[in-house]
Amino acid sequence: MAGDTLKVEDSTWDADVMKASELVMVDFWAVWCGPCQMVAPIVDELAKEYAGKLKVRKLNTDENPEVAGRYQVMSIPTILFFKNGQVVEKLVGARPKRQFKETIDSLLAQHAGTA
Predict the structure, then answer these.
(1) Within a domain: residue 87?
(2) pLDDT tens column, 26-62
(3) What is d(CA 115, CA 81) in angstroms, rounded to the nearest whole number?
(4) Is 12 an annotated catalytic residue?
(5) Is a pLDDT exceeding 80 seen at residue 5?
(6) Is cis: bond before 77, omega within 30 of 0?
(7) CB-side exposure of 71: number of CA atoms within 13 Å?
(8) Which of 8, 33, 54, 67 is catalytic?
(9) What's the CATH code of the domain at 24?
(10) Is 29 a catalytic residue?
């Protein structure tokens, strides 16, 4: 469903994130993480606001340690932005929605001509 935040797992990582042609935002989180719970509604709002421009995924680090380890996610929430299988931006810790929007807008502007 467009605009909805979908779960991504170790098994679906390559197809969902690495092979995506659009900009992908991945929220690395865990159930026990307080700041992750604060960021979750913001991530959901961003998924709706940027539907069609940005793919948003959530990865539970407890359930999917392989991918979290591959990107050396040491503290959560960590938000990684991918373009063509490469990490293009990393945000660690809870942030206000405005900061996420600034980062997304900047990345979309940078990558507008490289689709």
Answers:
(1) yes
(2) 999 999 999 999 999 999 999 999 999 999 999 999 9
(3) 15
(4) no
(5) no
(6) yes
(7) 29
(8) 33
(9) 3.40.30.10
(10) no
